[in-house]
Write a structure and sequence with these properties.
The structure is a homodimer. Chain A has helices spanning about 20-30, 80-85, 130-135, 170, 225-230, 375; strands at about 15, 65-70, 75-80, 90-95, 110, 120-130, 145-155, 160-165, 175-180, 185, 195-200, 210-215, 230, 240, 250, 255-260, 265, 270-280, 285-290, 300, 300-305, 315-320, 325-335, 355-365. Chain A is built from six helices and 24 strands. With about 375 residues, chain A is mainly β. At the A-B interface, helix 1, strand 2, strand 7, strand 8 and strand 12 of A face helix 1, strand 2, strand 7, strand 8 and strand 12 of B.
Chain lengths: ~375, ~375
Amino acid sequence: MSKTVESRIAGTLIPTPDITPEELQLAVRNHSMPLEALHYPITPIGLHYLLIHFDIPVVDAGTWELAIGGHVERRLRLSLDDIKSRPQTTIAVTLECAGNGRARLSPRPMSQPWLSEAVGTAEWTGTPLGPILAEAGLRESAREVVFTGLDRGVQGGIDQLYERSIPLADAQRPEVMLVHAINGQPLPPQHGFPVRLIVPGWYGMTHVKWLRSITVTDAPFEGYQQARAYHYRVSDQGEGEAVTRMLPRALMVPPGVPDFMSRTRFVSPGTYTIEGRAWSGLGTVTRVEFSDDGGRSWVQVELGAALSPFAWRGWQHHWKAEPGEHELCVRATDSEGNVQPDTQSWNLEGVQNNAVQRVRVIANPVDEVQAPADEYRS
Amino acid sequence: MSKTVESRIAGTLIPTPDITPEELQLAVRNHSMPLEALHYPITPIGLHYLLIHFDIPVVDAGTWELAIGGHVERRLRLSLDDIKSRPQTTIAVTLECAGNGRARLSPRPMSQPWLSEAVGTAEWTGTPLGPILAEAGLRESAREVVFTGLDRGVQGGIDQLYERSIPLADAQRPEVMLVHAINGQPLPPQHGFPVRLIVPGWYGMTHVKWLRSITVTDAPFEGYQQARAYHYRVSDQGEGEAVTRMLPRALMVPPGVPDFMSRTRFVSPGTYTIEGRAWSGLGTVTRVEFSDDGGRSWVQVELGAALSPFAWRGWQHHWKAEPGEHELCVRATDSEGNVQPDTQSWNLEGVQNNAVQRVRVIANPVDEVQAPADEYRS
């Protein structure tokens, strides 16, 4: 295993809208949530987005153990049964990939080419992390908590297990959990079986899957995924700003029916209920606005209740489709005053691009619909 | 809704290996099965491939009914409970998209750009179709059976519900089923909730999801997905040959660990058990061969049992990785004498490309592995 061969350096930029074969390899592996699945308050298993850096590990739950060590008074080893026998909580949490929207940037940072759909909301069941850390006994020197997964690969020229850290204070928040179930079922392999971390409000890279160990450290973690990747930076100078919590975003279910290839939407003129979801990791979504003229004018839409403080809120809006072509947009504002920008926020890694969604819709009178077989045959 | 606007004509060819933004839109919607999931004899929900032409419909199972009509003595309407109260069968079936391998062709037909992973095997539960057709009473004129889904969109310039037919004799085969469960659970939305068709042995386009109606016809069905799409043709002249049953294919779990971006595989020199699966819709897989020199020499591997006559067979092979670079290949032969070709079988739609899989592996002595946090901290 070599550190130096064959690994692309982060920061490669692609000047064309066309996608390289290497990016395609990632796009076929990593699943996004088809936008019509925004209809469901809880994303069905198999429609939730997935970003998996390396391979999905095969884990034997019977022998699996989670090691807890580092700057603690006593090391712990927890089995899956140990985790299930602790106090259990279920919470709805929206997860979004930090790279959502990357493929809309120009030039495009070379990595997983997400459009707008790298999101999902699930009901996660498990046990809070804080009491486990307390049981291990935090030393005075404790500062960060590093989560190490069983998924291994080479990135940035470094052979590594996937690992990320969060500050100790964040790890002790009551909503931070070790979970073993999604939507009432044991985690499937792709969601981190048998146990993963959930850090509500943060972008997806933080929620380490296939947990192997938890290490309390006395210094900032310098691993690749923490210190090099997942930074917002617009130049090679300086480290940039670490990506943490999700910026606000609203998405709509595209109305009407699609063209297979172009995904252009067609509706007959008339009034439609446009529905969607909105979320922010920085606060509560307080306003969602809709535009049918490409963002020149906006109207406020009706907001539904959130499933939890860490899950998206539903919204809907009655839209009258006049004949012609329309560009529908939606944008969210949160309680901290963060508003989605109308334009892309370009950066070297293509993270945190929460520019407003734009959906092209053509409203034409129906001229001819191919009747299905049962309507034109006796 | 217009027939004429905005719809790409089938047959557009892309001369470069780069993927257009339109193809990317399809690639982020449609899920393939990461190759490491070949480890599982039954593909976990969420890892099975998905190809969805239009949008995933939202269906209310309480009011849903399946209409059976056309050239029958009596029309039937079946509820979900009606289908569940009929005799139940569970069968393991391998499904593969007819377009699997399309993105490896040059020039590349414009459509969903699959690499090699558009496959999956599930245990489907439901009731055989034949007795339902018998109950409706087939007229002497009956010739084909058309299956119409609730998924609607524009393709080839035609506004349509997705629909496909099979000859009556095929529809009466005992393994052809209307299913309501996958892997012991109700169908999730993306797999055709509440009821879909399963036609074991055939490529995926035949297994119509979100069934709305079944129509017995006295003439070949001329709908878009049947008469125009899904044909093997190498020129615009003539109709080509209709795509039906799956050609043989073997795939391996790529050994070692991947580079995030290039997906190149790294192993330390040593002996590895290479595992994979092989299937054919034309017969039983009788031989799987492995090569570590790009297909210049082949050795036969050990075959496991099939889960059913319609599911893939596992295989494994002990491979000694000598230091250096290797191109691993695998190919299947079936009981009808069909063998996977070494080279692409180019055609206008990019269907049935079952050329052998090629996996590049670099075997290097370990020089430095980044230790995970728990190994380098006290």
